[in-house]
């Protein structure tokens, strides 16, 4: 099996992270891979918001937990030191575009030994005043839909094995 296929098969969602920061050169490679994802009509509708600042990261976590209905203390990003928030400019393929970006980010991360987990509720987050203010503070103007987050960091502990693949994944004609 070649290295690309190995990465695609062995990436798993990581739900316990070390606090060690991701070095800038590693993070940059992951982000660049995200920007090369396919997008509808090549419009590159998504943006990737990189959150390393602890205060902002924790504020996003608190909002996400509130939307999810969890207890105040619960960190929906599982202690990850970095959060990537992917949003996309509203257009017919916005969520598809952003989803391709997130998959590129997660697979690129894993190819570099960095663990990740897709974390939901970005849509509700960016519909809230909190999310709108975050976009405004970054100078992101216009109508954006939240697609998802990537919790990013070095895994703390074993990577769980993948569940067996269901038997009816593939149909051939
Ligand atoms: C659209 C989407 C939303 C997800 N949201 C969450 C989430 O909010 N929290 C979480 O822990 N995992 C989340 N996940 C991760 C899935 O639970 C995970 O991918 C799935 O269980 C398969 O495990 P694997 O990634 O290790 O193959 C999400 C995945 C996707 C694709």
The chain-level structural class is: alpha+beta
- How many domains? The number is 1
Q: Write down the secondary-structure element order.
A: HHEHEHEHHE
Order the strands across the largest sheet as they lie in space: 1-2-4-3
Distance between the termini: 26 Å
Number of strands: 4
Low-confidence stretches: none
Helix content: 25-40%
Quick overview:
The protein is an alpha+beta fold and 173 residues long. It has 6 helices and 4 strands; from the N terminus they run ααβαβαβααβ.
Explained architecture:
The chain is α+β, with helices and mostly antiparallel strands. It has a single domain (21-153), classed as NADH Oxidase. The protein contains six helices and four strands, in the order H-H-E-H-E-H-E-H-H-E. The protein has helices at residues 3-10, 24-35, 54-68, 94-111, 122-127, 129-137; strands at residues 46-51, 82-89, 115-119, 144-153. Helix 1 (3-10) crosses helix 4 and helix 2 (24-35) packs antiparallel against helix 4 (94-111). The longest helix is centred in the middle third of the chain and has 18 residues, at 94-111. It is globular, with a radius of gyration of 16 Å. 31% of the residues are buried. The model has no long low-confidence stretch (mean pLDDT 97). Bound molecules: flavin mononucleotide. Flavin mononucleotide binds at residues 12-13, 15, 117-120, 148, 162.
